Amino acid sequence: MTDWPELYRVLVGQTLGGIVWMPISSDTPQLAAEMQMSAFSFSGAAHVRFANNAFVQLSWQQKGDRFVLATGSEAVWVSHALDRLQAQGDRWLQLIGSTLDSVELFTLPDDHDRHTVAAKHNTSAGSFWIGVGGADFVGDHDDLWVGVDCDPPNRAGVVSLGIVS
Predict the structure, then answer these.
(1) CA–CA separation, 63 vs 77, rounded Å?
(2) How much is the pTM?
């Protein structure tokens, strides 16, 4: 299981080089149509690259009877199962070249094992979320919810696990 604070500790202070959405092929047309929006969901992974060639690839993984946030190495996708689309829209593109200042990790209130379901990335140019969820929520679901400079509609229903800075 990922040690999220340790994973992000080495990325804080780094410059964002790019964000790539990696949907399953059946979600690609819908995602392509929604990429200008500030928040959307899809099934697949998100690849956040830094200028120093470091990266974090986030997806979902089933853990017991729950879906939780996972790194790309934990979420096993068959080769070539995911398409790749560069993040689009002014709000997403403004993040490229910014510095990652901190990352806040979240869990669900009824998860006694405190699995991470979302990460809010705070940068020098704004913030963005990547978490498991559906079209309008972060939580126990086998898709990703992503949003830039906005919180998920159910923000009050998730619990902070702390901030890595």
Answers:
(1) 16
(2) 0.96
